[in-house]
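Long-time lurker, first post. I've been practising inverse folding by hand and with some scripts of my own, and I keep getting stuck on stretches where the structure tokens seem ambiguous. Below is the full token string for one chain I'm working on. Before anyone asks, I'm not after the true native sequence, just a reasonable design that respects the backbone. If someone could post their per-position residues I'd love to compare against what I wrote down in my notebook.
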């Protein structure tokens, strides 16, 4: 595993690899790309429930429980991870594809191309 942060998270202050049970926002990463963003008051327990998702690293941003929704949403909106399935993130992903078509792509880009 890499000791370097994924490129999309380089400027995020306070971000650390998941060390133990904590409250905060977590990032599932595959090959250096953020593929899922989640939140929990028990991140370790929650990450273990993602065993069907394809990821090779977990990163974590500690925060107070009252900040979870706002912080998670801001990262979902900024990163639009391919494995998040909430409606707002799916709409953002679709908007990215539409914008790519308007920029001259001859077909909608695949999820891999959108990363």
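-- Answer (accepted) --
I ran through it position by position. Result:
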């Amino acid at each position: 595993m890499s000791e370097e942060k994924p490129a999309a998270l380089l400027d995020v202050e306070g971000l650390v690899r998941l060390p133990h049970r904590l409250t905060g926002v977590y990032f599932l990463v595959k090959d250096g790309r953020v593929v899922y963003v989640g939140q929990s008051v028990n991140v370790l327990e929650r990450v273990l429930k993602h065993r069907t998702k394809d990821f090779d690293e977990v990163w974590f941003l500690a925060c107070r429980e009252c900040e979870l929704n706002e912080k998670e949403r801001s990262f979902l909106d900024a990163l639009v991870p391919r494995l998040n399935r909430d409606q707002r993130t799916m709409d953002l992903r679709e908007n990215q594809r539409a914008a790519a078509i308007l920029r001259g792509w001859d077909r909608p880009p695949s999820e891999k191309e959108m990363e």
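A couple of notes from the structure itself: Residues 7-107 form a domain with the GIY-YIG endonuclease fold (CATH 3.40.1440.10). The first helix runs from residue 43 to 48. Happy to go over any region you disagree with.
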